[in-house]
Amino acid sequence: MSRIGVFVCHCGLNIAKTVRVSELAEFAATLPDVVVAKDYKFMCSTPGQEMIVNDIKQHKLDRIIVTACSPLMHEQTFRKVLTASGLNQYLLTIVNIREQVSWVTHDIEEGTAKAKALLNGAVYRARLLAPLTSRVIDVNPNVMVVGGGIAGIQAALELANTGKKVYLIEKNSTIGGHMAQFDKTFPTLDCSACILTPKMDSVLQHKNITMMTSCEVSEVKGFVGNFDITIRQKARYVDHSKCNACLSCTEKCPGKGTSEWDESLVKRKAIYIPFPQAVPQKPIIDKESCTFFKKGKCRLCEKACEQKAIDFEQQDTFVQVKVGAVILATGFDLMDTKPLVQYGYGKYPGVYNALEVERLFNSAGPTGGKVTLRDGSEPKSIAILHCIGSRDKNNHEHCSRVCCMYSLKFSHLFKEKTSADVYHFYIDMRAAGKGYEEFYNRIIEEDVKFIRGKGARVTQSADEPGRLVVEAEDTITGKFIKLPVDMVVLSSAIVPRADARDIARLFNLSTDKQGFFMERHPKLAPLSTMSEGIFIAGACQSPKDIPDTVAQAYGAAAEALTIVVKDKMELEATTAMVNPASCCGCQNCVRVCPYGAPSYNAEKRVSEINEALCKGCGLCASVCPSSAIIARHFTNDQVLAEMEGLMEF
Amino acid sequence: MVISFKQIEEKLKTEAKRLLGESQVSIVLAYGKGYDENHPMPYVARNPSDVDNIVFNEYCNYNLARYLVRYPAGTKIAVAVKAADSRAVIQLIQEEKVKREDLVLLGIPVYGMKNPKTHEIIDGKTTGGLYNPVLYDILLGDEVHGQAIQSPYDVLAAYESMDKEARFAFWKKEFDKCIRCYACRKACPMCYCDPCFIDQTKPKWGDKSPQSHGNLMYHLTRFHHLAGRCIDCGECSRACPVDIPLYLFHKKVAKACEEMFGQAAGMSIEDKPALVNFRVDDSDKFLE
């Protein structure tokens, strides 16, 4: 015999509008073992919680059913109420009559009937619930940050400053990310390098940060508090422990590769550092462009190196790292606009994408900061085409958020560095951010021309060879226009990294429709993911500007800290367990588990479940042919009782 | 092409004798004499002298893979397998019930097997329609070629043309005949659960008396437990004393699985059982 208390929440009118709540409470009172049933306007409020506490004492309740919103919202709230009253927290049942009932109907009859059915099932199940004990595990105090752009740098510095050890993983040979490619940042137009390079140096100097460049995560094992991550250190062919960064090797190198850093606008050496302020200042050899790797002789760099740091035999190595939490700050890619043939990118030399233009402006860039076309001449007229690939049902539905602002920045810099006429082709101008509208107004004053209409096509001018013609509809005048220009800039979409899905798989994350990492909750948990202990920051979650990215990095660092600041953590007790006596060793559980919790003990010929990895989803229990797996809190008896209760209606 | 059953029988005997004689295996699963020609029986040869009792004729339908799971793990077994039987072995290997290295597969390429009740040739209507074993170590005869390739799913056309109500009425009528002898379960190479869900008492999943609702529960659950695992040997239907066309439902589910996961049961030991394998790129067509 259990003593059940049922507490029906109105949720203001959210529930009460389509469920007769007092009737539901009266109905609950008639159900077996229900000792007390009440309804109240906001059960989650302090008076609501106190009501439950008092009733537990007064009526000696041992099972609590709260019919309210989704357990995702307030399960923890009410569990705490039970714990405070001396009851085991797993004796709580939440019946979701908001998301699953009142919000999906307008019919109060239907709503009330469904709420009764769900409650009836819950009462049947609650009678069979058993108290469960949470397990406590040790927490590794270190954190890994994946991605060495501004988000990763900021998060790593914050964590390191709290005294935590941080591993910063970067796949390129330098940290800095996209921000290091920019010359100026909107809306303040402060110099990107001036605000970023000191931070890059702080990372290098910080005693708590282990910076790992030319590295990629290859395997993730473990769980929140105890991740066991394998890092692939890609062969650099330069022993960085010997290299003293004199860079005499790069002077002698005859090899020519395409500079990834300068967006393929120029060539670089085969042994190189991407840009003069790179961190670390130590070169790597690009196997593809190295004369020795291609032809078998050369080795000029080796002769130039006094430190004997060149090592052509170097192989990829694997490093094991143990951490308690992970922050993913893997950034974004710029959409490849070559497939959008109407804009002629890759076909006409006068068409540039946004990152190429960033490099043209940069004083450390391929032109030393001068804006010149590929033939060396200065453009006299420039068109900036907004929303290329973004806000476009045929490509990417999302708004890339920063293009309006960087396009405005471009026009300012074009005006500053050339005497060209600058035209914007835009759908509408999005300047939502601190100082953004003001920046927009400032640019309007600078004799920049705004044409409201999306650039439809870029063609070659028939009359003037080498010039381009932008075609668009000016939606203000309603006229179709053809504008001859020398240079076209495509403000192309910001898209997830090409390998974002692989990274998501490694860390067990979901991705959204566009392929960006999915947050746990768009408003209330934007930096957490559905994988405990994995956090996201910056443009890997969605396109965002530097201020938002940095803010997220601080937030993610704080989130990671909430885990690693503790020595121990409690694990959810609703996990699955194997009864070894009935396990037949089929390993269905091992194959079906998305979290890798079950493993096969070949010696004992039975499966075993690592409770720390188990999320309690119950897949293993449902595929177990011998019913050897018991999903705690959702045992066969409990689930069948609930179904029986549901089906009485 | 004429299949000589006598020749296959001779080769089966020779190989069985050799394998037992050289102690490569401790048992040979094959066919032996029954109460008449039309009813041979599964036979286990343990000594070279037992081999003379082995027979093979067009009525040797039984899927001998059924018996593999009866022996303790690690027992070295030689087993005679026809096309569908070899798929059952593969599926059992996928499900970790037997190990490839413990088995010697004596493959039998054959067509023209007959149903002992009707004496009709067994074809793609009630089976997967294959003639050659998918996996074998020793082939007892030449591979069968030149026979028309039958789609195992052609027979579903009439069934699929029925609407939901008609299908339910059809199965209800068929299942009402069921006497709960569990011959289907006994004949099936993939029905190895111990205890079977229907024999469990806590919770009691279904009624065991031969009545309509319990029959429905038993058969529909068994069908779903075989989803993605049925290798279409048709033995359940042939074993059924009241002729319930169980193969129809199994084929229907197999077809759906093949379409969704791009994999038919028991075709490769590299595969993982489709329904208990978590893959990020699994089809979620059914959600749309």
Layout of secondary structure:
The complex is a heterodimer of chains A (649) and B (288).
Chain A: E1 4-9, H1 21-29, E2 34-40, H2 46-59, E3 63-68, H3 71-84, E4 92-96, H4 108-126, E5 135-138, E6 143-146, H5 150-161, E7 166-169, E8 184-185, E9 190-191, H6 192-205, E10 209-212, E11 215-223, E12 226-233, H7 248-252, E13 257-258, E14 267-268, E15 271-272, E16 284-285, H8 291-295, H9 300-304, E17 317-323, E18 325-328, E19 332-334, E20 351-353, H10 354-361, E21 381-388, H11 403-417, E22 421-426, H12 436-444, E23 449-452, E24 455-460, E25 468-474, E26 479-485, E27 487-492, E28 494-496, H13 500-506, E29 534-536, H14 546-564, E30 568-571, E31 576-578, H15 588-592, E32 598-601, E33 606-609, H16 619-623, E34 629-631, H17 636-647
Parallel strand pairs in A: 1-2, 1-3, 3-4, 6-7, 6-18, 7-10, 18-29, 20-27, 21-22, 21-27, 22-23
Antiparallel strand pairs in A: 5-30, 8-9, 11-12, 12-17, 13-14, 15-16, 19-28, 24-25, 25-26, 31-34, 32-33
Chain B: H1 5-21, E1 27-32, E2 41-45, E3 77-81, H2 83-94, E4 103-107, E5 138-139, H3 156-160, H4 164-176, H5 183-187, H6 212-225, H7 235-239, H8 246-261
Helix pairs in contact in B: 4-6
List keywords for this structure.
heterodimer, A: 649 residues, alpha/beta, Rossmann fold, FAD/NAD(P)-binding domain, 5-stranded parallel beta sheet, 17 helices, 34 strands, 24% strand, B: 288 residues, 5-stranded mixed beta sheet, 5 strands, 30% helix
